[in-house]
Design brief:
This protein is α/β, with parallel strands linked by helices and 354 residues long. The chain folds into three domains: 140 residues, Rossmann fold; 54 residues, Adenine nucleotide alpha hydrolases-like domains (SH3 type barrels, Roll); 75 residues, Elongation Factor Tu (Ef-tu), domain 3. The protein is 28% helix and 27% strand. It is built from nine helices and 17 strands. A six-stranded antiparallel barrel has the order 12-15-14-13-16-17. Strands 3-2-1-4-7 form a five-stranded parallel sheet, sandwiched between helices. It is globular, with a radius of gyration of 22 Å.
Length: 354
């Protein structure tokens, strides 16, 4: 097949590239530039200079042609704008899910098609697997529960899923490192990036301060209504947050925000028995099967990570879901995504409303 491989400079995408090449496919590597120059000037050093040096070294060693494609404006319009809109509305966005659906496997494909270039598959170093069943495409989880990235890919469409391949999705991380060593790849010892796809090496608070500034507001105890201190903008806080509140006598947790008044409400009783935090509505559902499953007991992730809640779902007449977790989750926040599973199979995702 003719395969376009998305490369980032990290060991995962390098091993994915090596695997696709060894499978005998016709391969071209692509590096996507996403950040606008004015934002980079404010936020810090150019993040892709070091990444690109590794990408070029890997491609040179594997004798794979490399193209650098700018999707900076598309990224700003479709991911940055979405993130800021959600933050200003008091919700908690997930730009990584949007980046995959709208940019990596969205705008990138559109650019190739506009140039008249056809690739049978788009490959990346994501830890996930793709399977076809009764004419529909599904994600299945990676065997490495720590690295599994199906959560971030659950917004992909059927068209996108039919075009993607994840060459390392069946592996554990230690196996990927071993393959990098065996192939003597230039980045075989490079550390994993700890930043999210959206910001990489940047701090999210710096990004918010650059775009939204600071505005003094009241930090209020939820139970008494007493102002305890001041904050610099509700957009710096998310529901369930404990770090960064800066008050003694805690631990304190963020329990609510008033975006109109710029108030942030905090409490020391976040884990009290009367705070159920086990129910929410999931809207804008993306079902890989096309419809909701017949079964009403599923697994649910409310954030990226190993934790999967057992849950009961009931579909509403408008297509949204009532979701009840068997155990409460203290970090439920409107705007985040719930990703649903049937065992190892990812069923789809929806946006959380609490």
């Amino acid at each position: 097949m003719k395969v376009a491989v998305l490369v980032s400079g990290g060991v995962d995408s390098a091993v994915a590239l090596d695997q696709v090449k060894k499978q005998g496919h016709e391969v071209t590597a692509f590096y996507l530039k996403i950040w606008l120059e004015d934002e980079l000037a404010y936020l810090g050093d150019c993040p892709w200079q070091e990444d690109l040096s590794y990408v070029r070294a890997v491609c040179d060693q594997l004798n794979v042609p490399l193209e650098v494609i700018s999707l900076q404006q598309e990224y700003h319009d479709q991911v940055v704008a979405y993130t800021l809109e959600e933050i200003k509305a008091g919700r908690t966005p997930n730009p990584d899910i949007m980046c995959n659906a709208r940019i990596k496997f969205g705008s990138f494909l559109s650019v190739l098609e506009a140039r008249g270039e056809h690739f049978d598959k788009i490959a990346s170093g994501h830890y996930a697997q793709v399977a076809e069943y009764t004419g529909r495409w599904f994600l299945t989880r990676c065997p490495d529960p720590v690295k599994d990235q199906t959560y971030f890919l659950a917004g992909l469409s059927q068209e996108q899923l039919s075009r993607v391949m994840f060459p390392i999705g069946h592996l554990h991380k230690y196996e990927v490192r071993a393959l990098a060593e065996a192939a003597n790849l230039p980045n075989k010892h490079r550390k994993d990036s700890q930043g999210i796809c959206f910001l990489g090496k940047f701090k999210f608070t710096d990004f918010l301060r650059h775009h939204l500034g600071e505005k003094t507001g009241a930090l209020i105890e939820w139970e008494s209504g007493t102002q305890l201190a001041e904050h610099r903008g509700f957009w710096f806080y998310t529901i369930g947050q404990r770090q960064g509140i800066g008050l003694s006598g805690g631990p304190w947790y963020v329990v609510a925000k008033d975006t109109n008044k710029n108030h942030v409400y905090i409490s020391r009783a976040y884990y009290a028995a009367d705070k159920k935090r086990s129910t929410f509505v999931a809207t804008d559902m993306n079902w890989f099967a096309g419809t909701a499953p017949e079964k009403t007991t599923v697994g649910v992730k409310v954030r990226h990570g190993q934790d999967i809640h057992a849950a009961r779902i009931v579909e509403r007449s408008d297509g949204s879901l009532d979701v009840t977790l068997t155990e409460r989750d203290q970090g439920l926040a409107s705007g985040q995504f719930a990703v649903l599973y049937d065992g190892q199979c990812c069923l789809g995702a929806g946006r959380i409303v609490v």
